[in-house]
Design a protein that fits this description.
nine-stranded mixed beta sheet; elongated
């Protein structure tokens, strides 16, 4: 459900008010967003204008409340001397919208939505229907947003509250490309607290509110922030679109600058590819080599490393766990292993409680006496063409990734706890000499606290 303060804020973002307003509210719930929109509509339009709303909802319990809400809307709009028509559809929105679009579709002037969050099966009827009209996505919220964009007329406005996960990662790249070709981004609002926008419902996704203009000319983007749904500590600024989507970024990541994470910082200089380095997800998918698991290392085995071997920032292998600590070395496992050497690693998933999004570690021959290393698929591995790195470069990369500077930078384009290899490919790093210097300094430290890392990185960045 959409809290009333959020619904009112979303409605306040609409700016265009033609004499006939045709609103789309897919996944309407009990009608909170339509209700807030009507309040805004009555404030902004003159007597004699017309209001039409099409609300989609398939939940039979919610539709009873929604029907009552729509009847109340009709009474309010008529009382304000405006014509009104409401339509409640209990049909599947994706099926209905894709069918309509295959024949040219309806043309709304506005769309407001808080869509459902759920994956779409790769071989489902929904996925097939979306593909037939050129939309490629595997999540309901992205499908609803894309269909809303497709269904509004040129210069039409779309305001949605959606998870931030579409902003980065290879998974949503086709969707981002589709969206940015058809709509301009006018406004983005971000909540500083991931837990408080939907606190009553226990929703932990980091959500953003976005205003899009169908076919609009891309101009500067208004970026606003608030701590939570009370909209206290509200801040607003205007930023160039080039700060939101980098022109040279083939992934078209959507950055959300909030004042932190200065992407012009001189240490953000080179991609890993420009440094001659690579990053990959750990090659070992453990269930595929289950027959070769070993709970403890033995002769003729190699270490198999998981994220839990780096718990609390300390490397501990072997560690008693339900997962194996080693693999038998043979023809079946060899192709999934990397030769011994120095590697910088990050966890692909960090818990919501961890202070940093990116958590990096180093592992090398001093830690493991083995000819090959196995890295499980929930780790990202930075390497040099499937070989180890120079020790100081590996340590320097891990030091840099563990800095608050990088954490703030990473938050400008990622709102979830997953760190994909694609994210690291797109990030910028210091040059090799600087990384060598970072690594040499890190090696000399008895302990590495967050304050010590940040003081060192900050002082180096000022040189």
């Amino acid at each position: 459900m959409t809290p009333s303060a959020i619904a009112a804020f979303m409605a306040s973002l609409f700016e265009r008010w033609p004499s006939e307003v045709r609103l789309l509210d897919p996944g309407a719930g009990i009608g909170s967003l339509t209700d807030a929109f009507v309040n805004r509509y009555l404030e902004q339009t003159d007597r004699g204008s017309a209001f039409h709303v099409s609300a989609f909802e398939i939940d039979p319990v919610l539709t009873r409340y929604l029907a009552d809400h729509l009847r109340e809307v009709e009474v309010r709009v008529r009382a304000a001397n405006r014509s009104v028509a409401t339509a409640l559809s209990t049909r599947d929105f994706i099926e209905d919208a894709t069918f309509a679009l295959s024949f040219g579709g309806s043309h709304y002037t506005h769309a407001i939505l808080n869509p459902p969050y759920k994956k779409i099966g790769a071989h489902s009827s929904h996925r097939k229907a979306l593909r037939e009209i050129g939309i490629e996505t595997g999540n309901l919220y992205a499908a609803f947003l894309a269909l809303a964009v497709a269904l509004v007329e040129d210069e039409g406005e779309i305001v949605a509250i959606v998870p931030r996960s579409f902003c980065n990662g290879a998974y949503f790249r086709p969707f981002r490309s589709w969206l940015l070709e058809r709509a301009s981004i006018s406004h983005i609002h971000i909540f500083e607290s991931r837990k408080k926008a939907f606190s009553d419902d226990g929703v932990l996704q980091e959500n953003i509110i976005v205003r899009l203009i169908k076919g609009g000319t891309q101009a500067e983007v208004t970026v606003t922030t608030s701590h939570d749904a009370s909209f206290e500590n509200f801040h607003e600024r205007s930023v160039p679109f080039s700060s939101i989507v980098k022109s040279a970024d083939p992934e078209q990541f959507i950055h959300i600058p909030t004042g932190d994470g200065d992407q012009s910082h001189p240490l953000f200089a080179h991609s890993l590819a420009e440094l001659g380095l690579n990053v990959s997800t750990g090659p070992v998918v453990d269930f595929r080599v289950r027959d070769h698991w070993l709970s403890e290392p033995e002769n003729g085995s190699v270490p198999l490393l998981y994220a839990h071997h780096f718990r609390g920032g300390v490397f501990h292998w072997p560690r008693q766990h339900k997962k194996p600590n080693a693999l038998k070395l043979n023809g079946e496992t060899r192709k999934w292993l990397l030769p011994k050497g120095w590697y910088a690693l990050t966890k692909r998933f960090s818990s919501k409680e961890e202070k940093r999004r990116v958590v990096a570690h180093v592992v090398g021959p001093r830690d493991l006496d083995a000819e090959f290393f196995g890295f499980e698929n929930h780790l990202n591995v930075i390497h040099a063409s499937k070989q180890g790195l120079d020790e100081h470069i590996a340590r320097g990369i891990a030091l840099f990734l563990n800095s608050t500077l990088v954490d703030q930078h990473f938050r400008t384009f990622s709102g979830h706890t997953q760190v994909n290899a694609t994210d690291l490919k797109t990030m910028r790093f210091p040059d090799l000499n600087t990384l060598m210097h970072f690594g040499a300094w890190a090696e000399r430290q008895d302990t590495l606290t967050q304050d010590a890392i940040d003081r060192f990185i900050e002082s180096y960045g000022q040189q």
